[in-house]
Amino acid sequence: MTQDELKRAAAEAALEFVGDGSIVGVGTGSTANFFIDGLARMKDRIRGAVASSEASAHRLAAHGIALFDLNDVTTLPVYVDGADEIDASLAMIKGGGGALTREKIVAAVAERFVCICDASKQVEALGRFPLPVEVIPMARAQVTRALAALGGRPLLREGFITDNGNIIIDVHGLQIARPVEFESTLNQLVGVVTNGLFARRGANTLLLATPDGVRRIDAD
Ligand code: 5RP
Q1: Contact 117/31 with Cβ under 8 angstroms?
Q2: If I label 135, which of 22, 95, 116, 164 is the partner at 20 to 30 A Cα–Cα?
Q3: Active-site residue, 103 included
Q4: Ligand 1 mean position to 201 CA, how many Å?
Q5: Whose Cα sits closest to atom 6 in ligand 1?
Q6: 7-63 pLDDT, tens digit each
Q7: Can you give the pTM of this predicted structure?
Q8: Whole-Å CA distances, 212 to 33, 119, 123, 209
Q9: 99 in contact with ligand 1, CB cutoff 6 A
Q10: What is the number of the ligand 1 atom nearest to the C-alpha of 28?
Q11: DSSP states of 139-167 as a string?
């Protein structure tokens, strides 16, 4: 199977988690796009969706799925999204597509985070994928120095501005032994909006697509 076929298989499996009459939290990226396309087939059974990026909002709207503002929603039964890396505790690195801040906000409102991945995203320790950090533009140099002091190799994502008007610094060469603690440490850096570690609020369920089928793994 190709990687895209695996991504689609994980996304299709996530449709089982969508309840009739619900508003669905929707992530961003190529795997989430397969989920959006699947959601379109059942759009008459749901009220609509909250999108985690402008790109996902456009795709949802193109399918005729109603969009809700997160501020008008108290809770979401489920948030479905991909990841760049996921470990055994279902902590993740996200933000390869640059949507980490809105993803983290929508995920925070959701009762269940369902992560959809192909098996290449499963890792023993997070950090091989460069950790995205969204930063207020005027803090770029200061945050870059602070990230280097924490042991990483920060690189500005050239030519990229987030949906929130900020920049992304990708931190290479990290070995993240304690994701929960490291997520908090990064949150304390003045000028950092969000970092791509999703450990404090990891996934509740992983749907991992392998050539032998989609495996469901639930957090403890
Ligand atoms: C976007 C993300 C994506 O979920 C992550 O980059 C995975 O993307 P893909 O499904 O295309 O492999 O965090 O900000």
Answers
A1: yes
A2: 116
A3: yes
A4: 17
A5: 96
A6: 999 999 999 999 999 999 999 999 999 999 999 999 999 999 999 999 999 999 999
A7: 0.97
A8: 22, 11, 18, 8
A9: yes
A10: 1
A11: GHHHHHHHHHHTT-EEEE-TT---TTS-E
